[in-house]
Amino acid sequence: MLLHTYRSFDMELPTVDLREADYVILGLPYDGTTSYKPGARFGPVLIRQATLNFESYILDYNIDIAELKIADAGDVSLPVNVEDSIRVAEETIRELREVNPNAIPIFLGGEHSMTYAPVKVLKPKSYVVFDAHLDLRDEYQGSRFNHACVARRISELGVKVAIFGVRSGTKEELIYAEENGIEWVHARDYSYEAFVDLVLSMPEPIYVSVDIDVFDASLVPETGTPEPGGLRFWDVVEALEWVSERKDVIAFDIMEVSGDKLGNITALTAGKLLFHILGMLGEFR
Ligand SMILES: N=C(N)NCCCCNCCCN
Ligand SMILES: [Mn+2]
Ligand SMILES: [Mn+2]
Question: What pTM, to 2 d.p., does this model score?
Answer without folding.
Answer: 0.98
